[in-house]
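Attaching the record inline, Q. Sequence:
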Amino acid sequence: MSNSVAEAAIGAVVLAAAVTFAFHAAQPSGAVPGGGTKQLFARFPSVEGIAVGTEVRLAGIRIGSVTGLDLDPASFNARAAFTVRSDLDLPEDTEVKIESEGLLGGSFLELTPGRSEFTLQSGDEILDTRGAESLFELLMRYGVVR
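Structure, as predicted:
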C-alpha cells in the first residue's frame, strides 16, 4: 500500500512539472500584443552560434529574433537579419554584439543603445557590431593556451 502512495506522489510531482513547463512555453515571447516589428540588419565577420530564431535582447529582455542569415559575396561577411519590437525607437548608433549565455549556453544578439538623436527605421543596418569570441581565443589572449 505504501508503494502505491509513493508512486502517486511522484506521479503528481511529474504532472505538476509538466503543466508548469507547458504554461511557460505558452507565454508570449517579448512581442508587443497587437504591435508590430521592424526589420534590421547587421554584418559580422562570423555569426558562429547564431541561427534563425535566435533571441535578440536589450537589457536582458527578449525584444525580437533573428529571421535570416546570409553571406555577403563582396565582403565575405555574414549578414544577419533580425526583428525588434516596433515600439522601441533605437538610436542609430546602437551596438549589436553576439553574446554567449555561458560555457554551455547558447548565443544571442545583445543590443546596446547609443545616444544619437536619430533613430533606426525598418530596413536600416546597424554599423557598430562585435562578433562572438570563442573560448579558445580568450584562453590564448590570457596565456592559458599557447
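The helical segments are 2-25, 135-141. The first strand starts at residue 37 and ends at 44.

More tomorrow.
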